[in-house]
Amino acid sequence: MTASIWWIRRDLRLADNHALDAALAASEAVIPLFVLDPVLLQSSYGSEKRLAFLLEGLRQLQQALAKRGGRLVVRRGEPVEVLAGVLEKSGANAIFAHADHSPYARTRDQAVDARLPIQWTDGPAIRPPGSILKSDGGAYQVYTPFRRRWTEHPPPHPGELSPAPERIRSPELATEGLPAKPRPADEMRFAAGEAAAQQRLDAFTGGPDAPIFRYAERRDRVDLDGTSRLSPYLRFGMLSPRAAAVAAYQAMERAPDAAGRKGAQTWLHELIWRDFYLHILHHYPQVRQQAFRDDYTDIDWRNDPAEFEAWTAGRTGYPIVDAAMRQLSQTGWMHNRARMIVASFLTKDLLIDWRWGERWFMKQLIDGDPAANNGGWQWSAGTGTDAAPYFRIFNPITQGQKHDPHGDYIRRWVPELRAVPGEFLHTPWMMPDEVQTRSKCIIGGDYPPPVVDHRAARARALERYAQAKDAR
Question: Catalytic residue at 270?
Fold first, then answer.
């Protein structure tokens, strides 16, 4: 009986899985193999919440395989050595895996490619790196022209999405089993696995009143459940990115009105942003260590440890920033608008190196992805793929007023402010003493005063960025 290895990486699903489909087509039996790579366990899986989500996703995959006759094999060790050992023990004659694009993944995969019979299929992008290029063959560095070229390609068709196989034959091989969950299942805010991902996609895009149709008007409201919250599933491939794109195009076609079509189109553009950052990381791997833009490599960061600690703890004195940081620490997820607000505050108001924030997010986020996280941080810091970046400095007061107008988000995550009147909720330091007493929120006691004055910090940031640019 011929056998192939399906090396599971960022594709914890059975449907629309090119690597699995290729393995099934090449042999009579498939060995679904997940390698517990010590390097990734200590770094990109370094978030306790993200690791818990990954392990639960693997358990769900294990059950789905078992229902079809398959058997998940888990081994710990250096991937090339583990794969070589499984090949020898099983007699398999090929390995199939999705390509990946982070610097570590490419180094790891080159080592495997040099020693073992592996075949690569399309990876975590809808349109893989190399498929969207400028007319001169170069890579895009700005999102808007990238999106234009991306949308010139034919939309993915529903018929191209392969269903989950009905049967999978797997030989008997020893497995180490999955590690114990680092967090109790009832503490996980996202149900892991392919079935949960599909349910969330259907709930967001299906039906005549689907939330996707209101996405354009609601996506920036941090107090509303207006986004898809599919990013953790896309991060680990529990949902096919092509399936997400197909759902977006289908929603555009059946939108009830122009506003609904705009909502679906806007969500599709967010999926294209995800592709864009994967392409950037592939073509410019140095962005993991340095600014994308050379003219902002020498910013004179302040890097005050006490202010960084206040930011991580949600104790900056700016309610919208603190609410977002507490949501992150408690749930492992943060609304995208809130991510931009806190990133702007760290890099512009506090003048702390974006790499500090990028690393902190990777320690906290369930959906922490090297490409998207780096791209988002560099965009906010003004060091990334943008045309006129450093003038964009979010005002944490007006951002809160605009995107949490009733204060529901702030009151949920910053309980000290729950009784504060709406007129002072975004500027609690302006409360008169009697209002502080009545609200049981004493500034400097129950809740901190602002760690910086935004107006002065903004002027300082503009000066430092201009100096860095002029120095080049």
Answer: yes
**Chain segment 255-264, per-residue pLDDT in tens:** 999 999 999 9
Q: What angle do CA 185, 234, 404 make, to 5 degrees?
A: 80
**Residue 354 structure tokens:** 């974006």
Q: Look at the block and give the residue holding tokens 């090119």.
A: 18
From 7, 273, 356, 379, active-site residue: 273
Residue 286's CB is within 10 A of a number of other CB atoms, namely 10
- Token pair 């366990």 in the structure block, residue: 41
pLDDT digits (tens, 9 = 90+) for 179-215: 876 554 445 689 999 999 999 999 999 999 999 999 9
The three-class DSSP label of residue 105 is helix
Selected catalytic residue, list 377, 379, 413, 416: 377
Among the options 78, 81, 217, 270, which is catalytic? Answer: 270
Q: If you average pLDDT over every residue of the chain, what do you get? A: 94
Q: Is residue 377 annotated as part of the catalytic site, yes or no?
A: yes
Q: Is 78 a catalytic residue?
A: no
Active site annotation includes 273: yes
Tell me how far apart the alpha carbons of residues 413 and 447 are, in angstroms, rounded to a whole number: 13
d(CA 342, CA 409): 14
Q: Do residues 89 and 189 lie in contact, with contact meaning Cβ atoms separated by under 8 Å?
A: no
CA distance 359 to 389: 21
